[in-house]
Amino acid sequence: MGCGKGFFLELLLSKGIEITGFDATYEGKNHLITKSNFQPGIINKPAKGLILRHVLEHIQDPFEFLETLRDANGGKGLIYIEVPCFDWIIKNHAWYDIFHEHVNYFRMIDFQQMFSNLLYANYSFDNQYISVVGDLSSLRKPKLSQNSTIKLPEEFSSVELMFNRYKFTPSPVIWGGGSKGIIFAHLLKQFKIDFNALIDINPDKQGKFTPVTGFEVQPPEILKNYPPETNIITMNPNYLEEIKEMTDFKFNYQSVA
What we know:
The chain is an alpha/beta fold.
């Protein structure tokens, strides 16, 4: 469900797995992918497993959606769910990871309350994501408890605290044209901190402009003529080494948690 461009689906197909996909934004030609969002009656036969990778955080009523999936799949089957980890966001004061595209935020305890039978529950992507496999037949409505409540730490959304924490150098290059990069670039401008460019490796974003802020997204190739003292700020530390290799370790590098 929500297979995007179908890369992960194609990977599973290459390993001999029988799989179908649903995504209204799909632009490819794979006949196994239906260009539609999930709706009741769209599953022709019950599947052994369903996959929701970075879908549930976009659903207004996630539990009702899971119930619909369970019923559409004959009340059984396994489901793999991967979502951003709210505990990681809180721990790292990553308030810029809270934005309008994500209408829900999850902790491990939320899935433990929704499924009485979790076959797998762990953290992935350097603890930024939660990954679980639940038995759909064990789905149950979660109940609010003392352990369910959460309190944001003081100064969680302090921009000044973030700038003091990272001590950003003048005129940096921002690497990452997603939501975090857009918010970050906007804040730099608000605090009158100039930056040289906003870069993203996605060709679909290059040459286009970010929403609201109107910053043009550039390809990495523009760095060829930049001096070695250029400061590159990556929007995710997990990509830091990859970005260093792509740019021949030529520049100064920094990352935002």
